[in-house]
Write a structure and sequence with these properties.
The complex is a heterodimer of chains A (about 375) and B (about 550). Chain A is of the alpha+beta class and about 375 residues long. Chain A has nine helices and 20 strands. In chain B, helix 9 (about 170-180) packs antiparallel against helix 10 (about 185-195) and helix 19 (about 345-380) packs antiparallel against helix 24. The two termini of chain B are about 20 Å apart. Classes of the chains: A alpha+beta (about 375), B mainly alpha (about 550). Bound molecules: adenosine-5'-triphosphate and magnesium ion (MG).
Chain lengths: ~375, ~550
C-alpha cells in the first residue's frame, strides 16, 4: 500500500543543504503536512518524492518499491503546483483529461474519469475556457482535478492555496482534505502557514534549514513542542531566560533575570545550574488585577493592548523588564487598561523548559 | 553643464507636443525612407513587364528560378527546425559547462559574412583539398544541393538562437506538470513544451525562410552558373546587361518581373505561414507515448544529442571555417603576406572595400538606432493605441520578408528618379531598409519586458520623462540596444543582394569577394592578380575582422560601459 518512505535523503545546491539527511515515513491514506519557514526545503522534499529533481544521496520508497531512480511519470503521484501550471494552450477540460490521454485510455474512459473528478472538485461550468480566463479559485480546482484524474494514489500539493485570497483559502483547504480522504489517497501538503497545517493534517513535519525538527499530530506539536523553534513556529510563545536553581521531582525552580523566581515542569530533566528558556503560551495564562504572590505567577504592568476581534492581546512589562504577551477573549471579560498592575498565572504543566540554545535565543526563533 | 542639458531634455520631454512630434517623425521616416520607396520603385516600372511577356523563354527561366527559391527556402527552413530543435534543447537544458562554448560556436556562421561563407563551403564540399579528396571527385558539385547546404549553414544558427531563447524563457513547471501526469520526456515536449513555444518556432522558421529567400552573394558563388534561384537569376541578368549580352528592355523586364513575383509571393507566403501557424495544432497522437517512452531514455537521448552535435559540427561549423586553411597557406608564402599589408595590387581594392563596408555598417547602425528607438517605444508602449502598434509591427517586418535583391532593384528604380544622388547614400538607404526591422524588433521586445509599473513608480517619485528614460529604461534595455546594434552591423557587412542591385561603382567587401570568386572560378571576368590564394586570404581576413569586432562588442557588453 502506498506509504511513502524517505530514508537519509540529502540534497545540496552548491554549498546550501536544501535537505540534510532527512528521514520520514508517511502512512498510507494519511493527510500529512510539511510545514516550515520559507527556504527550509519543503518544496525540495516534495519534488524529490515526485522525481522532479534528483537527490544526492538517500533512498525514497513508495510502498515497497524503491523509486528514487524512477522518472516522475513512473511514480504514479499527482502533483499540484503552487502556480498551478495549467497548460495555457489547452482548455480546462483538456487539462483535466491530459493524464488519462497520455496513459492511453480510450476517449470514453477518459471522459468518465474527467466527469468524476470534476464532480469531486465541484466544477461543471466554463470547462471550455482557457486557464488565462479562469479565476484563481477555479484554476486551483482544475489543477487538483487534473492531478486526481491521472489516477495516482499519492497526492502531492505544493502550497496549493498560496495564490488564493484568505476567504477562498479557508473554504478550499477542508475540501481538499475531504477529497483526499474520500478517494483514500495519501496526501502530502506543503505549506508555511501553521494554521492551515494544524487545521487539516493528520500529522505534520516541522522543518527548518533542511532538517526535520519534529513530527507529530497537530495536538502533539502544540502541547509538546520538542524545541524552542517548534514552540515558536506552531502557535505563539513567550520566552523567558533564566537558570535552574532547584529541582524537586518533576518540577524545577527557575530564577529569571533580576532574581525573579518561578516554577515549571522539567520534562527534559535539565540539570541544576543550567541556563534555560521558559516557554509559556499566551492563551494558557490567566490574568488578575493587582499584585498577588504565588509560585507560578508573574507580576507586571500593561504596556499595550491590541484588539484583534475575538481576542484581545495584552503586552505586559514584567517587574524584571522582560516583555510578556497574553491573549484573552474579548467579549466575555472586561478589558484591562494600559498602566494597570496585573498578576499573570499559568498552569505549571503547560510551561515548558528548554536548554538555552547555543547560538542564542533570537537566532533560534528567527526563521 | 551636463545637468543643464538634462534639465533642458527633461523640459522638452515633458512637453506633449515635442514627444508626439518625435513619434510622428519616426513614423514618417519609416514610411518615407524604408517602406514606401521599394513599393513605389517597382510599381513605376511595371510598364517594362511587356518586354518579358514577349520573351517566353526568359520568362520560363525566371519562373523556374523563382520557384527554386521558394522550394529551397521552405525545405531548408523545415530542415533547420528539425536539426535545430535537438541542438537548441541540448544547449538550453544540458548541464555541462561546455555547452556555453557550444552556444558561442553556434553564433559563428551568423557573424561570418555570407559571401566568405559561400566560398568556404565551395572549398569544403567541392574542391580538391576539401572532403572531396576523400572521394577523388567533387563530393558535392556546385548546383542545387550545394545551395541547399549553404542555406542550411547560414540559417541554422538563427533558428538555434531563437529556439534557445524561447526555451530559456519557458516555464519548466509546465513540463514538470506533464511528467507527473504520466508523460515521458518526449511526450511532454510534444504535447506541452513545443505547443507553448510554437510562436517562437514559427518565428524561427520565418526568419530562416526569409534569410534563404534573400541571400544572394554566397548563393551566386556556389551556384556557379549551373543553378538559378530568384536572386541569382536577377544578378545573372544584371551581369549580362552590364556586359552587353542583353538589351536594356529585356534586362528591365526580367528584373522587374522577377522582383515583383518574389515580393508578392513572399508577402503572401509569410501571411499564410502566420495564419496557418497559429491554427496548426500538433496532433495529440494516441499511443505515441509508449514509443516516445523508449526514445526518451539515456541511450536514445545520447544518440540524439550525438546526431545533433554531428550535424552542427560537420555540416555547419567546419565548412564555415574551412576557408581559414587556404588563408593560412597564403600567409605562409611571405610575398603574399607583404602584398596584403602594403596594399599592393589587388589588395588596394580589398582594403578600400573593407573600409567601405565597415564605414557603411557604422553609419547604418547609428542611423538605425536613432530612427528605430522612437519606433520601438511606439510599438512596445502602444502610444497610439493597440491597432496602430499592431499595424506598425506588421509593416516593420516587410523589409525582412522581401528578398533583398528585389528590394534593392526596386530602391534603385525609385531613387534613380532623383538624379545626382551619390551611390553611398543609396547604399545607406538600402542597408537601412534591410536592417532597420531587426533593430526595432529586438528593441521593442526588450521594452515590453519593462513593465509600465516600473516607469510609473519612477514617475510617482517625481521623475520627468527623460529622467525616467535615463534612469529606468536605458539601464534595463541597453544590452538589447547593443545586441540590436550588433545584428544591424553584421547584417550590413554581410549584405550582398541589395548592394549588388543598387551599386555599380562602389564595391563593398562581400561584393568584392563575389567578383573575385567569379574571376577565379568561372573565368567570366578575370581580374589580374586574383587567384585561389588571394580569395582564400581575403575571406579569412574578413572572417577574422568580423570576429574581432564581435569580440570587442561582447567585451563592451560585459563591462557594461556601453
Ligand atoms: N534550483 C535551485 N538552485 C539553487 N538553490 C535552490 C534551488 N531550489 C531551491 N534552492 C535552495 O534550497 C533551499 C530550499 O528551497 P525550497 O524551495 O525547497 O524551500 P521551501 O521550503 O519550499 O521555501 P518556500 O516556502 O519559500 O517555497 C533554499 O535555500 C533555496 O534557496
Ligand atoms: Mg516552496
Amino acid at each position: 500500500m502506498p506509504n511513502v518512505r524517505v530514508v537519509n535523503v540529502t540534497k545540496k545546491y552548491g554549498n546550501v543543504y536544501a535537505l540534510d539527511n532527512v528521514s520520514l515515513t508517511i502512512h498510507d491514506k494519511e493527510y500529512f503536512s510539511l510545514l516550515g519557514p520559507s527556504g527550509c526545503g519543503k518544496t525540495t522534499l516534495l519534488r524529490l518524492i515526485a522525481g522532479l529533481i534528483e537527490h544526492d544521496s538517500g533512498e525514497i520508497y513508495i510502498g515497497d518499491r524503491r523509486v528514487d531512480q524512477d522518472p516522475p511519470e513512473d511514480r504514479e503521484v499527482g502533483f499540484v503546483f503552487q502556480t498551478f501550471a495549467l497548460f495555457p494552450h489547452m482548455t480546462a477540460w483538456d487539462n483535466v483529461l491530459y493524464g488519462p490521454k497520455v496513459k492511453n485510455y480510450d476517449s470514453k474512459q477518459s471522459e468518465t474519469i474527467g466527469h468524476e473528478v470534476l464532480e469531486l472538485v465541484k466544477l461543471s461550468e466554463r470547462l471550455d475556457a482557457y486557464p488565462s480566463e479562469l479565476s484563481g479559485g477555479m484554476m486551483q480546482r482544475i489543477a487538483v482535478a487534473r492531478a486526481l484524474a491521472a489516477g495516482g494514489k499519492i497526492l502531492l500539493l505544493d502550497e496549493p492555496l498560496g495564490q488564493l485570497d484568505a476567504k477562498v483559502r479557508n473554504e478550499i483547504r477542508y475540501e481538499i482534505r475531504r477529497m483526499a480522504k474520500d478517494l483514500k489517497l495519501t496526501a502530502i501538503h506543503v505549506t508555511h502557514d501553521q494554521a492551515e497545517a494544524m487545521s487539516i493534517s493528520d500529522r505534520i513535519a516541522v522543518m527548518k534549514k533542511g532538517k526535520i525538527i519534529q513530527i507529530g499530530t497537530p495536538k502533539e506539536l502544540y502541547m509538546h513542542p520538542n524545541s524552542i523553534f517548534v514552540a515558536h513556529f506552531i502557535g505563539e510563545s513567550n520566552f523567558l531566560e533564566g537558570y535552574i536553581t532547584k529541582i524537586k521531582g518533576k518540577y524545577a525552580t527557575v530564577e529569571l533575570r533580576q532574581g525573579l523566581t518561578v516554577k515549571a515542569l522539567n520534562e527534559r530533566e535539565i540539570k541544576q545550574e543550567e541556563r534555560v528558556v521558559l516557554a509559556i503560551r499566551p492563551e494558557t495564562c490567566e490574568m488578575k488585577i493587582g499584585y498577588i504572590t504565588a509560585e507560578n505567577a508573574l507580576q507586571g504592568k500593561i504596556d499595550k493592548t491590541t484588539f484583534e476581534g475575538t481576542i484581545i492581546r495584552y503586552e505586559i512589562r514584567l517587574e524584571n523588564g522582560d516583555r510578556f504577551v497574553i491573549n484573552r477573549p474579548s467579549l466575555t471579560e472586561d478589558w484591562v487598561e494600559i498602566g494597570q498592575e496585573v498578576t499573570i498565572t499559568y498552569p505549571l504543566d503547560k510551561a515548558h523548559l528548554f536548554p538555552y540554545p547555543e547560538n542564542g535565543l533570537t537566532n533560534e526563533t528567527s526563521v | 553643464m551636463l545637468s543643464k542639458i538634462l534639465n533642458i531634455l527633461n523640459y522638452l520631454s515633458s512637453k506633449k507636443t515635442i514627444k508626439y512630434a518625435l513619434y510622428f517623425f519616426a513614423i514618417i521616416i519609416f514610411f518615407a525612407l524604408i517602406l514606401v520607396p521599394p513599393i513605389i520603385g517597382i510599381l513605376t516600372k511595371t510598364g517594362s513587364l511587356e518586354n518579358i511577356f514577349e520573351n517566353p523563354e526568359l520568362m520560363d527561366t525566371a519562373l523556374g528560378a523563382i520557384s527554386a527559391s521558394f522550394i529551397i527556402g521552405l525545405v531548408v527552413s523545415a530542415l533547420d527546425l528539425i536539426a535545430g530543435l535537438p541542438l537548441a534543447w541540448l544547449i538550453a537544458r544540458g548541464k555541462s559547462k561546455w555547452l556555453s562554448v557550444l552556444d558561442t560556436l553556434a553564433d559563428i556562421p551568423f557573424v561570418v559574412p555570407t559571401a566568405a561563407l559561400g566560398y568556404s563551403l565551395l572549398l569544403f564540399w567541392s574542391s580538391s583539398g576539401g572532403i572531396s579528396d576523400l572521394f577523388g571527385h567533387p563530393f558535392v558539385s556546385p548546383g542545387w544541393l550545394l545551395v541547399m547546404l549553404l542555406h542550411f549553414t547560414f540559417s541554422f544558427p538563427v533558428v538555434v538562437r531563437v529556439i534557445v531563447g524561447a526555451l530559456m524563457d519557458y516555464k519548466m513547471e509546465y513540463e514538470r506538470a506533464s511528467r507527473t501526469l504520466g508523460s515521458p520526456p518526449l511526450t511532454a515536449a510534444r504535447t506541452v513544451t513545443l505547443p507553448i513555444i510554437k510562436p517562437s518556432l514559427i518565428a524561427a522558421f520565418t526568419l530562416a525562410f526569409a534569410r534563404s529567400l534573400s541571400e544572394t552573394g554566397a548563393t551566386f558563388i556556389v551556384a556557379a552558373g549551373v543553378f538559378l534561384n530568384g536572386p541569382v537569376f536577377i544578378q545573372t541578368v544584371s551581369n549580362q546587361f552590364n556586359s552587353g549580352a542583353i538589351s536594356q528592355a529585356s534586362y528591365e523586364g526580367a528584373t522587374v518581373f522577377a522582383s515583383l513575383i518574389l515580393i508578392v509571393v513572399s508577402l503572401i507566403l509569410f501571411a499564410l505561414i502566420r495564419v496557418i501557424g497559429q491554427k496548426m495544432k500538433l496532433p495529440f497522437g494516441h499511443g505515441l507515448a509508449s514509443l516516445e517512452k523508449k526514445l526518451s531514455y539515456k541511450k536514445a537521448v545520447l544518440s540524439r544529442n550525438g546526431v545533433a552535435l554531428g550535424v552542427f559540427l560537420l555540416i555547419v561549423l567546419v565548412p564555415s571555417l574551412f576557408v581559414a586553411l587556404p588563408a593560412f597557406q597564403a600567409l605562409a608564402t611571405g610575398t603574399t603576406f607583404i602584398d596584403v599589408f602594403t596594399g599592393s595590387g589587388v589588395w588596394a581594392s580589398y582594403w578600400q572595400s573593407l573600409f567601405l563596408s565597415y564605414g557603411l555598417a557604422a553609419v547604418v547602425t547609428v542611423l538605425g538606432i536613432l530612427l528605430g528607438l522612437p519606433m520601438a517605444i511606439l510599438i512596445a508602449r502602444k502610444t497610439f493605441g493597440k491597432i496602430v502598434s499592431g499595424v506598425l509591427d506588421t509593416l516593420i517586418n516587410i523589409p525582412i520578408i522581401v528578398p533583398s535583391i528585389a528590394l534593392g532593384i526596386s530602391l534603385k528604380f525609385f531613387w534613380s528618379n532623383i538624379s545626382g544622388l551619390p551611390e553611398f547614400i543609396l547604399l545607406v538607404f538600402a542597408h537601412l531598409a534591410i536592417t532597420y526591422p531587426y533593430f526595432v524588433r529586438s528593441m521593442s521586445a526588450a521594452m515590453e519586458r519593462i513593465t509600465i509599473d516600473m516607469e510609473e513608480a519612477s514617475k510617482t517619485l517625481g521623475a520627468k520623462p527623460f529622467t525616467v528614460f535615463k534612469s529606468i529604461v536605458w539601464p534595463i534595455t541597453k544590452y538589447s540596444v547593443l545586441s540590436g546594434a550588433i545584428i544591424v552591423f553584421t547584417r550590413s557587412v554581410s549584405e550582398t543582394g541589395a548592394t549588388l542591385a543598387v551599386a555599380t561603382e562602389l564595391q563593398t567587401a562581400p561584393v568584392l569577394i563575389v567578383n573575385w570568386v567569379n574571376s577565379v572560378r568561372t573565368g567570366l571576368s578575370t581580374i589580374v592578380g586574383v587567384n585561389e590564394l588571394t580569395v582564400g586570404l581575403a575571406c579569412g581576413l574578413l572572417i577574422l575582422f568580423s570576429f574581432i569586432i564581435l569580440l570587442i562588442l561582447r567585451l563592451l557588453t560585459k563591462k557594461g560601459n556601453v
